[in-house]
Amino acid sequence: MTDRIAVVGDWNSILGFRALGLETVPVKDVQEAKEAVRRLAKEECAVIYLTEQLAKDMADTLRRYKDALRPAIILIPGREGSLGIGKSNIESAIKRAIGTDI
Q: What structural domains and CATH numbers belong to the chain?
């Protein structure tokens, strides 16, 4: 069994990931994105890439999976560009893991 990797976001932001062979889950709004993340987690998807534009309004859902091994939820910029949320989350995770800011 191979580990699944999915990308959740608006169609224009995630279309290119399909060419890379990743599972794409286009959504129209935050509610659909929450449902998609929950479904993918339940199906034991290993990695979920999620656009920052959706993630900014999904704190409750993301908090649920924050410290879980699976799925790893990685925030990516959408077609509108980066909001800096993904970078901030990675910096915070590194700080928690090693105890200092690098």
A: 5-76 (3.40.50.10580)
Residues 63-92 have pLDDT tens digits of 999 878 889 998 988 787 666 665 566 555
Q: For residue 51, what are the β-bridge partners?
A: 76
Burial class (CB in 10 A: 0-12, 13-18, 19+), 68: exposed
Strand order across the beta sheet in which 72-76 lies = 23-26, 5-9, 47-51, 72-76
Please state the pTM of the whole predicted model: 0.80
**Ramachandran angles phi, psi of 21, nearest 5°:** 90, 10
